[in-house]
Amino acid sequence: MEIPFHKPYLCEEEISGVMDTLRSGWLTMGPKTVEFERRFASYIGSADAVAVNSGTSALHLALKAIGLEQGDEVIVPTMTFTATAEVVCYFNAKPVLVDVEKKTCNISVQAIEKALSPKTKAIIPVHYGGLPCDMDAITDIAKSEGLYVIEDAAHSIPAWYKDRPVGTIGDLTCFSFYATKPLTTGEGGMVSTDNGEWAERIRRLRLHGIGKDAWKRYSKGGSWYYEVMESGYKYNMTDIQASMGLSQLDKIEYMHNRRRYISEFYDREFADSEALLTPYICPDRVSSNHLYALKIKPEALSIDRNTFIERLREKGVGTSVHFIPLHKHPFYREAFGYNGTDYPDAEWAYERLISLPIYPSMSEYDTQYVADMVKEIHGKHKK
Ligand SMILES: *Cc1c(COP(=O)(O)O)cnc(C)c1O
User: Which partner from 175, 284, 300, 340 sits 20 to 30 angstroms from 16, CA to CA?
Assistant: First the structure.
């Protein structure tokens, strides 16, 4: 058996959608992108959504929209992908890394409070694996300190915090449509916001800072004349990507149900394994179930996490680790002096985490095989 860590869920609809776009002759940002933005915004219930070429670009332009400047500070959890913090560095601002909660790997509210300074401008909570952060507490801090909240929702379509879909809570929310994410366009991203001015600014910045509807200049009713209003970026989405996104959006509920089903299956399978800790379930939140982040208890096993992963690999089960905390990477250590003693809970989680395969095309046989192999290795090495 070979079970890869991830396979994108692509069907005839994605293929024919892309073919239609190729045949239409309009390849890059145009009618499909506009349609994808409208349908995405209406799906999550935000006033507006702006499509870009990656989740990283989405985060970068969200920080441009709030006017981040050199010397500002932005609070970011250490348990994330480098994109969340690197965009802060683009501004010569400082990503202030903070610790996470042991049980969810989401940003710790206490750690945010400790990290506040007069230079703090924003908080970027990451909904780890698709489970929303404690948004009431984070919003309260932001309100009382005058900070912006930009959500990193790269894992979180669809997800709900209480009765609110992710994408409608913070000032701006950034999604990723990278190949491994819950909705994919190969590469791509989206910023959702209720603030019309920010949405317009992001629309302008994603296409060279050119004034309104620049993409229309090559359409029938378009004009050759345009004006550059500021120094922008080449961050636009293509209609090829958007047509994939539209097909993915059509089956988003199905894909979510499949991942939820697999997650609940693993939970039941591992419930009696003493040295395994299944992902925490928050009663007031709905996770997108993007990741199934199992934790092992190394104190109850004769092997460590890395060996556990190696044994799974020998059985043909692909896994991953989300994430290597940012403070452990040479860049963040050297540029900002971060060090492990400040992040005990992220360090604790990092030694234990194994992300198991979870994607809609996994069969019953696949999921049973993964669960059996995990239990077999657990049984062999339990102290
Ligand atoms: C994937 C990811 C990103 C970056 O998205 P890209 O589309 O790859 O640029 C940002 N944050 C997190 C938490 C991610 O997992």
Answer: 175
